[in-house]
Amino acid sequence: MNKREMKKLPIGISTFFEMINGNAYYVDKSQYVQYLCDSGKYYFFSRPRRFGKSLFVDTLKCAFEGQKDLFKGLYLEKNWDWKDTYPVISISFAGGRFSDIQHLNDFFEEILTANAHHAGVNISGLTINGRFKNLITATFEKTGKSVVILVDEYDKPILDHIENPSKAEEMRDGLKNFYSVIKDSDRYIRFCFITGVSKFSRVSIFSDLNNLEDISLQPEMGALCGYTEKELTATFRERLDGVDIDTLREWYNGYSFLGKERVYNPFDVLLFLKKRQYGNYWFESATPSFLIKLLYQNKVYIPDLSHIEIDQGLLSGFDLARLLPEAVLFQSGYLTVKSVETLAPGQRIFTLDYPNQEVRVSLNMHLLDYFTSGGAVTGSLRLKMSKALKLREMDKIQVLIQSLFSSIPWEWYTAGDLDRYEGYCTSVFYAFLASLGLDLHPEESSSHGRADLVLKTDQTVYVMEFKVVEILGDGKKAIDQIREKRYHDAYVQAGKDVILVGIDFSRKERNIVGFAFEAA
Question: CA 304, CA 317: separation in Å to the nearest integer?
């Protein structure tokens, strides 16, 4: 197909009407519209930002309003009763920033007025709740049809203030009062669909809407947002000419919401197809400064991010008073489900991991910058380390590691209590190597125990062990442990070139004081 004949890449487009009429690529998700409407009435659905939630909400709107022409050639065209239409109340918090509760109340007034104008009804009431209730009942009475309520990015007013608990709670309470109207209006409602990034505890925000079904981790909803590989290759076939699918998969696929297939991040895919080069597009669209601080404040051992175990209750939601890093990482898209183990009926353990190369590299780069002075110094060290590992230049590797820890500002030790952060030496070093995009395996298991870190390059396997000492060390005890526990045996038996590395870190010197290496 000639490039001029190709459809448009729908970058930044979140309305179904614009996507279809603008001759843009559309991955057909309309089958989910039918499934949801046939299966229930009240739904909650969470996904990370820029995953296509707003587009699906607008697809629902167009279907309920009976805009059949937009669905030509799509699944819903022949699988929907187009004669039966419903009035839709649309509420989206996606645009703008909510600075305070008055701003939120002003927004409610504006959105209710706009919906009333669209429905051709007059609403009154001294309170926002009263006006919302009147909007629902007046629309029902005028049309004789049950109302569809669609809420997009319900939690944005809270997330705007996630670093300010008191203000976030104020926003939460304002939203809670607003959403309570929906439960009381059940007889007038045909369908309700609420989306967001996070799932806060139902007690704190959806307590009055306790009939809301959370479909976020239902296997049949696993690909409602995001692209499966089948959808990707079928929809964007002419755009994928010359693209190495294995590399594309490594960079942007990997998200699992318990469906049969892992999905690609749509935002990344579209920008990659436009620019034809790999970049941290999704990650760079928002700065995770709050998350980085949360990880540090909770003394999270950074190598564990590639293998975190959590139960479903903690995974599915969190409370403003107790923000767990694991839950925030998952719901915001920085970690995803790697595997699920059922321990007993109703009791499952989820293992989390980075979804793909983009997130692994980018998040660890930000962590590294937070732990060190960052900037040009760290960037230069990263480039030099990548080359030294490839060439097995062990003396340079030692110097680079020492330079890395020397780059941590003194203020971090006096104000940031890094010296009391157990495992921070390994955390910093792991973040450094992970930011290079290297194949890392923290605490890699063998039949005799776990090595602290295994690093694999194309030609070499580095088996590393860390020791924390008070003043002096030479790294040899760490190597002795590797040999004693035989952490390296499996790699040697596989015919790999293996180098054993022992590293001693001094609490007093706050740097590497011992470094030893041997061929296995």
Answer: 21
